[in-house]
Amino acid sequence: MKALEGVRILDMTHVQSGPTCTQLLAWFGADVIKVERPGVGDATRGQLRDIPGVDSLYFTMLNHNKRSVTLNPKTEQGKRIFTRLIEECDVMVENFAPGAIDRMGFPWEKIQQINPRMIYASVKGFGPGPYEDCKVYENVAQCTGGAASTTGFLDGPPLVTGAQIGDSGTGLHLALGIVTALYHREKSGKGQRVECAMQDGVLNLCRVKLRDQQRLAHGPLKEYSQYGQGIPFGDSTPRAGNDSGGGQPGWILKCKGWEHDPNAYVYFITQAAVWGNICDLIGKPEWKEDPGYAKPEARLDKIPQIFDAIEEWTRTLDKFDVMRACNPLNIPCGPILSMKELAEEPSLRDTGTVVEVDHPTRGKYLTVGNPVKLSDSPSEVLRSPLLGEHSDEILKDVVGLSDAEIAAAREEGAV
Ligand code: COA
To answer: Where are the alpha helices (DSSP H) in 167-290?
Structure first.
């Protein structure tokens, strides 16, 4: 039995943040019923299409293990069917623009009335306050949540990151809120509202940067490279390039072939406990005893110079050879892996983190499976549904409609 078997999710999500959340719940065994607008569906089905007329990878990779029903809750029949779905489901998840579900005629008060055990979870761009009515996409959240101002190089503009911390990151936060509310419902017998704003989710992931903001009041941030470069700090957490963000200095260093391979680099951490090993490895054994280098505090004003010296060594080796040399010495480091390398990495296939899925109109494609592994509830990645693929079975088995009632609802454009 899967961990969330028996939990039924009314999935009103679209694009990325909400679908990430409900896909995760589906992988843990919940029955996720994705409600989509008749004839249209989730907008991402048609976005960034690589094959004409076929559901995009954007859609297929975010909607595994779900069932799809088409339904327009703004029609008369649609409202009746939607009400039945609220009665039959445990959790409703949505990430429409603020107020959209209310405008469909289903504010939280009404949902609670229909089903007091319902857990109603939402992603919005912002929490209550001046921006609560705004629509928000990934990069807007990265910018307003503190990620962009602290990402990039000191002499360059703010940067967004490739990791979808605004969308997928908030979806993960929301999933945790939902299972927490389900756990609470075991004791209280009641549902509740679960909300996660994308700005809040990103800021939570930028927690260490707010830490540094407050440390600035007590002096320069000595572990930042700019300290060693003699560049004064301003009044807010600066962009830190590839600095580690933690107490052990780190940087991205060139490896053999960097001139023609954009990913021939390694992340190298000068772990204090193995400083002696690092010195021996890079041919600087004299640094082990030198008072200017021996202790971590003594090194803080020369971090960029130290990494220049380490790079002299890494440039002579392939990025994987750097890792092979460092690991036995307990020096933490990691090659910069391209998407191509990750897609082809056999160990990720073995663990189910990268999975090949077959789709009836697309054929085979690669996706990222469930990164969270439960020993007694392993995830099986099943293809995303076609638009309305499960409408009839859901309308019959979950909603309880007869064939004639389904035909009438179709006539009205409700499904
Ligand atoms: N039947 C009928 N109408 C439907 C429907 C259905 N099954 N599903 C959605 N709709 C309607 C909604 O009711 C809404 O109509 P309304 O504005 O007239 O009330 C409309 O479709 C569009 O919803 P909206 O959310 O405004 O879509 P959008 O494409 O304009 O905006 C976002 C997209 C992502 C910017 C916006 O949804 C948003 O800000 N969401 C919250 C934050 C978020 O999750 N952002 C990241 C997404 S990855």
So the answer is: 167-188, 198-205, 207-215, 225-228, 275-281
3 state SS of 94: strand
| Ligand 1 atom nearest 135 alpha carbon | 39
Q: Which two tokens stand for residue 212?
A: 């540094």
Give pLDDT tens digits for 222-243: 999 999 999 999 999 999 999 9
The Cα 266–Cα 322 span in angstroms is 8
- Would you say the CB of residue 171 lies under 6 angstroms from ligand 1? no
The atom of ligand 1 lying closest to the CA of 74 is: 2
> What DSSP assignment string belongs to 66-93?
EEEEE--TTSHHHHHHHHHHHHH-SEEE
Phi, psi of 114 (to 5 degrees): -65, -45
Tell which atom from ligand 1 comes closest to the C-alpha of 123.
Answer: 44
CA angle centred on 325, ends 321 and 264, rounded to 5°? 30
Q: Which of 135, 143, 173, 174 to probe ligand 1 with, by most ligand atoms within 8 A of CB?
A: 135
Query: Would residue 200 show up in a list of annotated catalytic residues for this protein?
Result: no
Residue bearing tokens 């405008």: 103
- How would you classify residue 70: left for phi > 0, otherwise alpha for psi between -120 and 50, otherwise beta? beta
Provide CB contacts within 8 A for 219, sequence distance 6+. none
Distance from Cα 171 to the centre of ligand 1, integer Å: 16
Asked if 310 and 268 count as a contact pair (C-beta separation under 8 A), the reply is yes
pLDDT cut 70: percent of the chain above it = 100
Q: Chain-centre distance of CA 295, in angstroms?
A: 38
Give the burial class of 77: count Cβ atoms within 10 A of its Cβ; 0-12 exposed, 13-18 middle, 19 or more buried: buried
8 strand-pairing partners? 31
Say yes or no: CB of residue 167 within 6 Å of ligand 1: yes
Q: What is the pLDDT of residues 312-331, one digit of tens each?
A: 999 999 999 999 999 999 99
CA dihedral 123, 383, 24, 52 (to 10 degrees): -30
